Amino acid sequence: MDMREDTELTLTVDRLAFGGKGVARVDGLVVFVDGGLPGATVRAKVTRVKKGFAEARAVETLTPAPQAVAAPCPHFGVCGGCLHQDLDYAAQLFWKRQQVAETLSRLGGLRDVDVAPAVASPETYGYRNKMEFAFAGRLHLGLHERQRPGRVLDIEKCLLMDDRTGDILAFAREACAATGLAAYDPRTGKGVWRHLVVRRSLATGGRLVHLITGPSRRAGDAAHHFGEALLERFPDVSGFVHSVRRAPTTVAIGERQVFALGTDHLEERIGDVRLRISADAFAQTNTTAAEKLYAVVAQAAGTAPDRALWDVYCGCGGIALALAPGFETVYGVEADKRAVADAQKSAKLSERENCVFKTGDAATVLADLAATKPAVVTLDPPRAGADGQTLAAVMDAAPEKLVYVSCNPATLARDLKILSDLYTLTQVTPVDLFPHTAHIEVVAALELRR
Asked: Residues in the active site (predicted)?
């Protein structure tokens, strides 16, 4: 078949690929279908043709998928935040497990892996404790569109967070627009407003709002006036932080904190761990599911009361603090000094006196820690996975157990293939921290071969 862009096809979708697109076939050619659910027949328009595969977008559902449901969000389909509100949650869990198994087999050569059923999130809506909203133009504030990610959709509320967040979002959009200042444009470096990050604590009910602007001279006064008005309008917002970001990359992380009104952090609880979370801190965005994640990690790690544990890429210390009662000493390693400062304060809050947190390049710090001879090493790297030198340092230490927590099955597969020289993969458990999205968190348990 002569397939080109804008060609319309009738396709039957047979499964979901990693990343969330449906998979169909035409004359043996794989077609990845945005908006296609397993079991559905759709009319789709081809958007891209490459050697070996094509991409298409579903424009009409001719026969609905057996597990299709009505999406409750009025922005669904336009907003890029959720892909699968229209798929029954049990089916989402099934396909996430399948995607993990397929990815480990295809990219890691791990074909006989025991992949457990995905652990469900206790809440499927209102579960997020953090949302990142983007500014654009004069003046939009919301989430990026699904089909046109360069555009920002003004959303009234997001069902992944509570209703109060929608109220804060509407107030911020109106207040910032009233200044007459435009959003920051990464192409020109001009403009002010960049991101609005809203956090909430389930433990205290407090909220922290983080405004990130460009380096414009006009940003400081405007941000201060906005912060004061926000705190007056919303008594449950316990803190406001203004940061500046100069880099053009559209990441909701401040490079320099300018000021804070009220408190500059939140306190959260996950099990018996008390976490101090600053404006730019990395912490799991689903508090109740994070407790389940920690439980899976703890089961895989076991205990060694007279031995050490290394927690590599420890962030603000959640996993290290959760596992600390089972080990003599826990060493947390993290490159971000702000995260380490939070981890140290969290250790005091949690009364964990056996935790030591170190800042620096992971491979370098692990070399310095070699004499501690860990019984267990946990790793929770960013999406890019662990770097080769860090994996080499871990393998040199040869702990009896490794527990690898990953938010990207593709890089997990790559790293497990490297670790397989010394370790046997004993269990893989997906944990769903992100219902209705394509994101998957995975815990892999490994044991040293004797």
From this structure: 407
